[in-house]
Fold this sequence. Notes:
Blueprint: H1 5-8, H2 13-43, H3 49-79, H4 81-107
Amino acid sequence: MQRPDAIIDDVAAATWQAYNAMETTKRRHFALLEMLDTKRRETGCEPSDEETRQLAWLLADHDAQVHRFTAASGELKAADAAAHRALFDYIGQLSRLEADVAVADKLGSNGAPHAH
């Protein structure tokens, strides 16, 4: 994997920042969603009104970041198609790396599934 430092620190900086913000808000939303799902499965309790509001706020935050990233990505593509391709190649590599790490974490170092 190669990090495209020159474009991330220059022409693609806004798009890269928007992507990272989008990823952060996605993780926050999914973390609360997972916690509430676990609570429901283990206790049979539905989310409280406050938890439901928090989940909605996190989803709204994520939606806003998706729109920001989409706009920044379009602007980058119009301004510098090669930088856009390089950034998205890098993002794709990161996604594959994260997927590989998730699989390895589930399997553990000996190839056997973790008991979570």
